[in-house]
Amino acid sequence: MKILNPKRIRKLMTEKKIYSILIAAGGTGGHIFPAIALADKFKLDGHKVVIAGTGNELEKKIFAQHEIDTVYFENRFKDVSGFRKYTSLFTPPKSDLIKYVRDFNPNLVLGMGGYASLDVCKSAGYIAEYKDSEEHFMMHDLITPYVAIHEQNSKAGRANRYIANSRARGVIEGFPGAFDWKTKFLQTSTDDLIFLGNPVRSEILDMKQNVRSYSKYSKNPRILVLGGSQGARSINYSIPDAIQELSGEMHVEVMHQTGELDYVKICEMYKDNEFSADVFPFIEDMAQAYEWADLVIGRSGAMTVSELSALGMPSILIPYPHAMDNHQLFNARFLEEKKATVIINDKELSSEHLIETIKRILSEDGTLQDMAEAAFDETFVNASENITQFCYKMIEKPPLITSIYPAE
Known about the structure:
Blueprint lengths: L5 H10 L4 E5 L4 H16 L3 E6 L3 H7 L5 E4 L9 H7 L6 H10 L3 E4 L3 H9 L16 E5 L1 E6 L6 H9 L3 E4 L7 H6 L5 E4 L6 H4 L16 E5 L6 H14 L6 E5 L5 H10 L5 E3 L5 H7 L2 E4 L3 H10 L3 E3 L9 H10 L4 E3 L7 H13 L3 H9 L2 H4 L1 H13 L4 E5 L4
Parallel strand pairs: 1-2, 1-4, 2-3, 4-6, 6-7, 7-8, 9-10, 9-12, 10-11, 12-13, 13-14
Antiparallel strand pairs: 5-15
Helix pairs in contact: 2-18, 6-7, 10-15
């Protein structure tokens, strides 16, 4: 390692006004959508951005709807045993990934969590060791990119915990306290650990809803049911009977996202109950759905909770019980502690329980309004701006310089 003089460092920092940023994200929508929100902001600020994913069908479908450069690499942690995952942590990423990162020469690698992002973050530490042609034997100074990670959930995942302890110089929490004392104690490379929230998609923020007013209804209460993600069948099957019985006491309108697998069955259930609901396998325009709704019922994935916070939306949340480290329960508690949601455990979910909870929220004077005010959190409105500024400050630090010499 060679230390350059301050004048050389300042020159390196000021010569490149347009930053190159590599975002590692893939696997599920919970990692993909915040990556897109940040990529859009980086691009808006005039920087070059590429998202590195794994190339699964969901990624390709979502990324195709956005004008963002993408590149795909095999996820060697997918569909392997826990032992294989553990041993892979101590071996280098595949050479094609290391070569890409070296050639792209990013100023920053930003990992969005999950095993899909792990090798991309690790590769930043291996580029000085990679040689694929004679040109790499020339003497030169190699700038090793800084690595930052963003954790969406209230409990940090294993991949992010590993990177936080080994590679990351910046750690961003989507919810406060995502990294526990053990991770903080074991940190060896992290300069900054900060809660900045989860970036919410611009089309949702563009609603400019802030805290909504519920003082007088000019319409029937509107319930948005989000039952279309992994493990949401219990929600899908409980709602139609609950709504049918509830409609005997109060008039409500329902929009229900079921997912592809349950769509036909849920349509039949509403038809048998003689209740007219707007049922969709997938809601394309979530911004419009949120704008329409007064109360949201669904799982408590990180992005759902973040969107509810950014918009000030009252909710009933049923955490997915099989989520890693039970993180959905802790996500929901972020809103419950502010009295912005009511949590129903999945094992306690029933039509009767739903009816009682919905009636209490919609019938008690001022409850819906109070929940809306409690839910609204400006941290999530400003998350994209604050996270990108945090990243720029990291990039502007004195670069990590490694001297590469010709082979003897």
